[in-house]
Inverse folding.
């Protein structure tokens, strides 16, 4: 049963590309813009977002930003450069070291997690500043696996104006990236936020994306109960751990709650799409 | 008799009735020039779909004193029009509605009966539910209109069939969902929501030995995509035309209404249908349920 269901992670990449490029083009245009800004980490998600945005808007309308810290790996920079070269998008490299190091020095005992969050948020500041300068909207790069697990920094790498990849599991991102000829070195390497040397997502999460994709697909898309997931062959501890992560990170997936005191309140009974009037 | 049909699968401005009316008039004129007798527009084609709190601000009255309908009724002097809008009744209830206009008159208005309020849908929160379904006479014979979720309940097409409809006019604003797998033909694949609708419409055409014409909007509203894919099926259940997926288009097709005669001569499902048995058993079932 689980094996059959797994095939459903396979996607028609042409149709997916058509819907996602249409989404980028439409939603940027109706917001009054024609350009996009994307932070390129050298990883798979941001590479794919950049490929999609370039196809949707034209390469000249997509600004790719590389924002390394002094410990960022040269491989990440090189891989990001491969995307820039492959697409011919304009690019900037803005190192964040001088921006974040003063804060790191103020707290010498700072944990890797705090440092990682600060770097992610500094990159957000640089991205949105270039958004204003380039007159382009920030296109997000978070995928469904990451969003559900809450594996991102709130108001950091999760911050964007629109997100084309947020309903694709990591395995689906990979399929689409393959079909769009994202460079091989990016497709092959282990996913990493590159926040400190030797970091890998899977090392930090304690499980593989493949396992997480398959479990989340059953839990979320197919509405399996936790017991049914265990019956389908998943380790019970792993199932509990993932469900806990999904629940505890719900705050990252919604706007902060507003305390309702009036008769009409934003978020509760003042309801309009962002595309209101367009 | 022939019916030259135009199926408009359009994008809309969310809450922009004026702009959407302009687009209607443009496509009506194009269809008229193509020799069409009837043009179909999707669900809520004058307003956009995810209206939420915009509902009260985009409502109109299907009569000649309403500025929007005044223009559409004028246009209907030369071509019949089915359009989607929000109707506010005399007691200020708001309905998802479809109007059939012909010769400067409103021949029929249907209020959507089944308002999906689950999953990504929230229609029941913002709209009142229609409480009737009726076939009506046109210059091409008797037809019936339904809106999206209406035809996911087999009872409504069935009732229209018994009420004399030989041509079913269906309108949708169907959000695209359910990516097909790569093995289903990369690029040629359709979203699951598109396949479901095609499958049931084809089945209705075959079950009811009638024509089924369906149009659906295109474009995006925030993260939702609408897949278009207008389609017509013959009384034999054969596809007569398929509009493109995910792009604005008008599809033209000629319905040979004599096909009703030929199909029903071969396959007298309508003749043999037993509404009295249906009613008897339905009465029993609903009474048992009450007990």
């Amino acid at each position: 049963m689980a094996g059959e269901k797994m095939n459903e992670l396979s996607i028609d990449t042409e149709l997916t590309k058509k819907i996602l490029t249409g989404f980028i083009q439409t939603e940027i245009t109706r917001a009054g813009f024609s350009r996009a800004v994307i932070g390129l980490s050298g990883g798979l998600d941001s590479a794919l977002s950049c490929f999609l945005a370039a196809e949707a808007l034209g390469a000249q309308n997509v600004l790719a930003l590389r924002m390394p810290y002094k410990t960022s790996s040269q491989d990440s920079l090189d891989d990001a450069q491969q995307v820039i070269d492959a697409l011919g998008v304009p690019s900037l490299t803005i190192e964040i070291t001088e921006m974040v190091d003063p804060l790191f020095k103020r707290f010498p005992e700072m944990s890797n997690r705090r440092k990682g969050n600060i770097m992610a948020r500094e990159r957000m500041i640089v991205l949105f500043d270039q958004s204003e300068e380039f007159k382009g909207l920030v296109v997000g790069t978070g995928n469904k696996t990451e969003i559900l697990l809450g594996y991102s920094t709130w108001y950091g790498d999760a911050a964007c104006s629109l997100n084309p990849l947020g309903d694709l599991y990591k395995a689906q991102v990979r399929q689409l990236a393959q079909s769009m000829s994202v460079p091989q070195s990016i497709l092959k390497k282990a996913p990493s936020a590159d926040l400190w040397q030797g970091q890998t997502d899977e090392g930090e999460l304690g499980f593989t994306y493949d396992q997480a994709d398959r479990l989340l697909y059953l839990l979320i898309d197919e509405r399996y109960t936790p017991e049914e997931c265990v019956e389908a062959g998943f380790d019970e501890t792993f199932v509990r751990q993932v469900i806990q992560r999904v629940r505890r990170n719900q705050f990252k997936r919604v706007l902060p709650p507003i305390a309702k005191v009036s008769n009409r309140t934003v978020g509760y009974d003042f309801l309009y799409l962002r595309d209101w009037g367009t | 008799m022939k019916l030259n049909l135009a199926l408009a699968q359009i994008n809309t401005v969310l809450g922009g009735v004026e702009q959407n009316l302009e687009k209607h008039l443009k496509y009506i004129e194009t269809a008229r020039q193509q020799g069409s007798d009837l043009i179909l527009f999707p669900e809520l084609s004058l307003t956009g779909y995810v209206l939420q709190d915009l509902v009260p601000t985009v409502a109109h009255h299907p009569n000649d004193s309403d500025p929007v309908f005044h223009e559409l009724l004028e246009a209907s002097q030369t071509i019949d029009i089915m359009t989607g809008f929000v109707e506010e009744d005399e007691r200020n209830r708001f309905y998802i509605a479809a109007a059939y206009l012909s010769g400067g008159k409103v021949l029929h208005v249907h209020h959507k009966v089944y308002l999906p309020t689950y999953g990504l849908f929230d229609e029941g929160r913002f709209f009142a539910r229609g409480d009737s379904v009726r076939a009506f006479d046109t210059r091409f014979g008797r037809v019936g209109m339904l809106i999206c979720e209406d035809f996911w309940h087999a009872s409504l097409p069935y009732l229209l069939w018994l009420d004399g409809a030989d041509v079913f006019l269906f309108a949708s604003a169907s959000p695209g969902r359910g990516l097909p797998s790569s093995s289903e033909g990369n690029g040629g694949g359709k979203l699951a929501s598109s396949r479901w609708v095609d499958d049931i419409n084809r089945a209705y055409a075959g079950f009811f030995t009638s024509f089924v014409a369906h149009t659906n909007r295109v474009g995006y509203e925030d993260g939702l995509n609408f897949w278009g894919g207008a389609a017509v099926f013959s009384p034999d259940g054969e596809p007569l035309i398929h509009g493109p997926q995910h792009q604005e288009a008008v599809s033209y097709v000629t319905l040979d209404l004599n096909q009703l005669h030929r199909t029903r001569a071969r396959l007298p499902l309508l003749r043999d249908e037993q509404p009295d048995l249906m009613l008897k058993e339905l009465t029993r079932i609903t009474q048992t349920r009450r007990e």
Notes: Chain A has 13 helices and four strands. The CA atoms of residues 218 and 224 of chain A lie 5 Å apart. Chain A touches chain B at residues 7-8, 10-16, 18-19, 22-23, 26-27, 167, 172, 175, 179, 269-278 (CB under 8 Å).
